[in-house]
Amino acid sequence: MTHILFEKKGNVAVAAIDRPKALNALNSEVLEDLNTLLDGIEADSEIRVLILTGSGEKAFVAGADIGEMSALTKAEGEAFGKKGNDVFRRLETLPIPTVAAVNGYALGGGCELSMACDIRICSETAVFGQPETGLGITPGFGGTQRLSRLVGPGMAKQLIYSAKNIKADEALRIGLVNAVYPQEELMAQAEKLAETIARNAPIAVRACKRAINEGLELPMDEAIALEEKLFGSCFETEDQKEGMTAFLEKRRHEPYRDR
């Protein structure tokens, strides 16, 4: 991967978009690198949580690469949107939990990338926005869909129509992020959260992610039936047996083994 820095820390993977001179802007090469990253994550059964961030202290991802987009035809623009959406949807449906550690500007494609993650935390210096209407286009990597689902249609429309950016405190107020930390504490807090998640039974955590993500798109009766099926799937696993035995024996459970 040319534009992604990768580090594995036990059961936690940390990946940073690395185009600091371009404020980590997304171009076709970065999207291809993200696809390659996801290939590696899916192939490594030891990884239980992925943290995604940006290199440097200025930007998470400042947007899609305007230089690349400026000369696109209608057909090429639609194809570029599909390329980004395919990668982001793959990230969104990755079986393991994902945490976006937003360390600066998260604009346009950067905001959309963070919204494809399960959990977003950010630094006090973070700035979010969907500035596309000021550039003569719409959000193209899922922004119209995920933002409205996260903060409600009214707030999403206001942010997208106005193309105005918001700071970390406002992102927290409207529910776009879960927590705000000083810049120097952000990655430590992201890793602490990821490690807490990774200590829990991975089969159960993955089932919870699927139940939430898929259930939100279903009528309640169907969503509850999905939950019942996933609940049942956890039984007879070694993790379930160990977790419940440890509880009954009033001891700390042994490390979960994902079987």
- Alpha-carbon distance between the termini? 31 Å
As a percent range, the share of strand residues is 15-25%
SSE sequence, one letter per element:
EEHEEHHEEHEEHHEHEHHHH
Overall radius of gyration:
19 Å
Q: Could you give the count of β-strands?
A: 10
Q: Identify the strand order in the major beta sheet.
A: 1-2-3-5-7-10
Commentary on this structure:
This protein has 259 residues and is an alpha/beta fold. It contains eleven helices and ten strands. It has helices at residues 28-43, 66-69, 74-92, 109-115, 143-151, 153-162, 168-173, 186-198, 202-215, 220-233, 238-248, and strands spanning 4-9, 12-17, 49-54, 59-61, 98-102, 105-107, 119-123, 127-129, 166-167, 179-181. The protein has a six-stranded mixed β-sheet, sandwiched between helices. Strands 4-6-8-9 form a four-stranded mixed β-sheet. Helix 1 links the parallel strand 2 and strand 3 (49-54). The longest helix has 19 residues, at 74-92. 37% of the residues are buried.
Quick overview of this protein structure:
The chain has 259 residues and is an alpha/beta fold.
